[in-house]
Specification:
Layout (H helix, E strand, L loop, with lengths): L1 E4 L13 H11 L7 E3 L4 E3 L5 E10 L10 H13 L14 E9 L8 E8 L10 E8 L5 E8 L5 E5 L2 E5 L4 E10 L12 E6 L4 H15 L4 E5 L2 E5 L8 H9 L2 E3 L5 E5 L4 E4 L4 E2 L2 E5 L2 E12 L10 E12 L3 E5 L5 H10 L4 H14 L2 E2 L1 E4 L1
Parallel strand pairs: 16-24
Antiparallel strand pairs: 1-22, 2-15, 3-12, 4-5, 4-7, 5-6, 6-11, 7-8, 8-11, 9-10, 12-14, 13-14, 16-17, 18-23, 19-22, 20-21
Length: about 375
Amino acid sequence: MIGMRMRPGRVAHLMAISVVTLVVMLGMLGFPEEASSARLKDVIDIEGVRDNPMTGFGLVVGLNGTGDSSAAFTSQSMRMMLERMGISTANGVSVKNVASVMVTSTLPPFARQGSRLDVTISSLGDAKSLQGGTLIMTPLKGADGRIYAVAQGPVSIGGFSAQGGNQGVQKNHPTVARIVGGAIVEKEVGFELNRERQLQLALRNPDFTTANRVVGSINGLFGQPIARARDSGTVTLTVPQEYKGRIVEFVARLENVQVESDIPARIVVNERTGTIVVGENVRISTVALSHGNLSVNIKDMANVSQPEPFGGGDTAITNETQVSVTEEEGRVIEMDEGVTLGDLVKGLNSVGVTPRDLIAILQAIKASGALQAELEIL
């Protein structure tokens, strides 16, 4: 399947621990002929059953001089808070034990009043650390501007920050903190699942083949055509009569349906880290490639000649330049049509390419039209 033509005496370089080596090992293990099946709950989301982000502006107090020092909105917010408590602040407020923060959380589906949620607190001003602080009662609003939860409590940064003079020690990120169970749900999102007569399933990776397989698996399980694909990313379900008012039981049965997800032929490349992930369906047409490196090394040296002591001469300086050129022996690999993932990676590895070189080779193969796969560069 792969024929290699090399000059005599040349031995293919074997790479050490690298991304390419890892991919070769995966290629040697081989892939199954059919895509592995997954539970339906792992490939779809149910329309209406989702999280809702919440945000709020608050103050963290009790800091040991590590709060905001020059943020005007912190002083303004603290003055407004004290005035609501009946404390006059006519002379203004300027302290370093308070920090303005943005509080974020997520309201899960079907959360009820009194449920507790985790919150994340992030500094907005120039505070150095939130260590030891306490978040004052902060309303959390949804995208519609309504208050759905209230957060309050001592914050935890999961680390520390200490500084003295010109030296300091820091662990983790001291200006971002969390409060486990620090928010209480005050308002519920109105969604009655048991009243639904139809359910919309949204595929997390839209694909016509996968959508069609989902429909076939569901209809085969219930023995009636209750599912139909509306497009590559949506499957519509009609709730059977025997499950009216028992949607939870219906969805629980749906979640364990086994579906074979179809994976498109794709190569994902991260040039910054040299990471390459090759899908199992990648194929290439007949192509011959050559890989070799040309290195030019230029070195400047200064030669200094000094006269003997008390000789009365001048110091002479001459520049010497050395140029060396090294070119690796060219190697050509021919790959026949229909080459698989393992063949492709083994062939590229046999010429001793590094992950960086492999990225350039894949881009060149794609540009030639011989790569039947999507090349995604991050």
